[in-house]
Design a protein that fits this description.
heterodimer; A: mainly beta; six-stranded mixed beta sheet; 53% strand; globular; B: mainly beta; seven-stranded mixed beta sheet; 0% helix
């Protein structure tokens, strides 16, 4: 069935480092792809999305490109901040629901 | 104004009890969902309602019963609570369902602890 695989964490970086969190997916058809972020004690917030191949989603300095040839949607940010510390979820649509990856915890050190 | 609000935020209860979690959205969305997040942060869909009609019912024990009195509300009732029900339960809503690609708006979660 459809699924999302993302790199296991935790990922620990220093402030201003470059971030990549890998995400690959398995799906039939052309799902929409998402990155959600969950800050401690809060619900998930939509960070960015892409609805078709080669689309690039971007928000708050984060970006991800829908790559159908490699079935990937890697999350990147050029310079992370301490406030980016959170759990990041890659996700895709299947029928009427969204399927989430297992989440990657990110720690940014000052 | 909170877009998707859940109550209560925390719920501690004994095994065998019956409890309810309420969810309301003021976004005018027509689809609402319940997800369960376990201690490892894994999110699993439980139910989905579209305009008060049940459209997704994953393999969830029948002790869990959703109820949608109108399209702005989706409540979750749990009978005979078990230790394994301890988790964070998230309500979410979307416009036109997940197919439309708009994504979900999530509530802040209800942390259920069964002792």
């Amino acid at each position: 069935g459809d699924s999302v695989t993302q790199m296991e964490g935790p990922v620990t970086l220093s402030e201003e480092a470059f971030l990549t969190i890998n995400c690959t997916y398995t799906a039939t058809g052309y799902p929409s792809l998402f990155w959600y972020v969950q800050y401690p004690g809060e619900g998930l917030q939509l960070l960015l999305k892409a609805t078709k191949a080669d689309d690039k989603g971007s928000n708050k300095g984060f970006e991800a490109t829908y790559r159908k040839e490699t079935t990937s949607f890697h999350l990147e940010k050029g310079s992370v901040q301490v406030s980016d510390s959170a759990v990041y979820f890659c996700a895709l649509t299947r029928d009427d629901k969204i399927i989430f990856g297992k989440g990657t915890r990110l720690h940014i050190l000052p | 104004d909170t877009a998707v609000s859940q109550t209560p935020k925390y719920l501690v209860t004994q095994m065998g009890n019956d409890k309810s979690i309420k969810c309301e959205q003021n976004l005018g969305h027509d689809t609402m969902y319940w997800y369960k997040q376990d201690s490892k942060k894994f999110l699993k869909i439980m139910f989905s309602y579209n305009n008060k009609e049940l459209i997704i019912n994953e393999t969830v024990p029948n002790r869990f019963s959703p109820k949608s009195p109108d399209k702005a509300h989706l409540n979750l009732h749990i009978n005979s609570l078990e230790l394994g029900d301890s988790a964070v339960y998230f309500c979410a809503s979307s416009q036109d369902g997940a197919r439309a690609g708009y994504g979900y708006t999530f509530g802040s979660g209800t942390r259920l602890t069964v002792v």
